Structure formats: C-alpha cells, structure tokens
Request: fold
Amino acid sequence: MTALNLRHFRGDEVEVPEFSATEAKNSFGRVLDTAYSQGMVAITKRDRATAVVLSLDAYQALINAQSRPLSSLSHEFDDLLASMQTSAARDAMLDAFDTSPDEMAQAALAAVAR
Reply:
C-alpha cells in the first residue's frame, strides 16, 4: 500500500492510501478498514488512480458540502450588495467615474508603491 494525493470534500489536498486493483480484490476487508479509518482510499490500475472508496462519514460530508456553499455564497452576495447600496458607496462610485485617466494612473501607481 502506498499513498496518493487527492482532494477531499473541502477541496484540500490530502494524502490518501492507495491499493492496486489486485490488492483490493485480494484484501477487500483491509481496503474497507482503511477507508473507514482514513476516510477514503484510492484504487489504482496500471499505476493510475481509477476509483475511490469512501467511508460513510466521508460520503455524508461530501453530500452535505455540496448544498452548503451555494447558500453561504448567497448570503455573502446579499451582504456585499447591501454594502454597495449605501450613500457612501454610491458617492465613492460617482467619484471614481468622475476621475480623469491621469488621476486614475496616479492612484494606481500610489497603490502599487504601498
């Protein structure tokens, strides 16, 4: 058994135990035990990952993670939109549109210098 780097349900790269297809066939109990304790294992064929066996907990986390980001992004968008609806934000945008190209260039150079 070796290890392979894969991404888990949060998108982070993790080291995953790797079994060849032959090892998985001959020692499936060990594959299940490893998947249970490690969260997932990779099955390889000709030194290339071809399948992943997930523990039930890892599978549930994957399913739950799919629905969560959209709702959290929706809340972030709503908060950002609300912050852009203030009179201060409106005035700042009007100032930005009234800025000349030379003033914009000077501001960009000043921002880079910081």
